[in-house]
Amino acid sequence: MIEPSTAARVPRPSKPAPDSRPGLSGLPDGALEAWLAAEGQPAYRAKQIRDGVWRQNIVAVDELRTVPARLREGLERDFRVDTIATDEVSVSDKGLTEKTLHLLSDGALIESVLMHYPARGLGEDGRPEHRERHTLCISSQAGCAVGCPFCATGELGFGRDLETAEILDQVRHAARRLAERGARLTNVVFMGMGEPLLNLDRVLEAVAALSDPRRFGLGARHVVVSTSGVVPGIRRLTALNPQFTLAISLHAARDPLRDVLVPINRRWPVAEVVAAARDHARVTGRRVSYEYVMISGVNDTDVDADALAGLLRGDLAHVNLIPMNPVAHTPWQASGPQRVTQFAARLQQGGVGATVRRNRGQDAGAACGQLAADRAGEPPALVVAHRREVIVRQSEAALRGDRSVERLPADLESAVAGRAGDR
Ligand code: SAH
Ligand code: SF4
Q: In this structure, which ligand is nearest to the CA of 144?
């Protein structure tokens, strides 16, 4: 979730040359052992290096004190210990939310958000009923081709896929900061910039590293992968029977409106997305989460609630209602608290479980992607005005029930072509 294209708005004088050395954290299982063998090094060094990467969260080879200098030189020559050049952290919510803008080696900017949830309530045994949690929201792509109009990342457009190590190094950076205060990361959600199912191979490699006890060691049950509805990708996941939670960003239960709010709907409409999610829940036995960003007067009426309840009733599913974080290029506002509560109650009466989620980090730049957008500078007023006008026109037509006749935007068409996880 981010704002209009950095490239479109601020011409970069010269792009740093991309570093072709693979990131250490993204190496597939066995690759380190093969490299050590080729270097004539003993196999037990693999564990020392892995522990450095995953327990110590090293960001420079000098921090790897357990291995000899010659081996450190070899590692430095062939790999990047860290794929992130710099971090800029902004703290909000009285310290409970930390947004980080990460600069990658080729100049791309991505974001992650670390959210702290203190322990809550005391059980009969005097222990907290909800243990302290530290959840990290990470990016899978720089920018996003899907182009949801309420999303700051969507406005940025597509930059590029992240490498596996670039996904994982966001996690290692957060874990490193947490370790300084004696805490550990408890949950990772793929809800930052980008569409994870359009970079699925790397996302799967990253999840494998996160849940591998020899690497990050986080149970897959503590991972959520969110998608805007890339149906072949969902079906591919289902076949793998993963232990992580699948979240679907629905935002509208009716096609005409979802065509506007989540443009990939023109390729895979609501019924196909929900059918794939339903099969996923049946095969994996795991409940699917539906995300529903609430936009005042656009998708928050009783008619929308009833359509949503009708769609999901009887499914192994749960809806998270999220009042929209305001973004510069839309005229839309978040639904008011009362409307959100009424919408949730109506869903529940209709037989569908729903929870209202609080927005985090509004004072640190609202939705994920806004730090990068701010860095890119405000788009010209005329561009913003035009964008707003188009969004209003499209959503008014959608609210009348007119199905969009627009094709997929060209960059989204090419992003989904052959990259949607079809095998
Ligand atoms: N591309 C994937 C994952 C990243 S977006 C997806 O869409 O599922 C993660 C979540 O943030 C999505 O549910 C998205 O709809 C939500 N989001 C984006 N912009 C938002 C905004 N302005 N306010 C609240 N949530 C937003
Ligand atoms: Fe934003 Fe997700 Fe839509 Fe992409 S798919 S534009 S990241 S909400």
A: 2
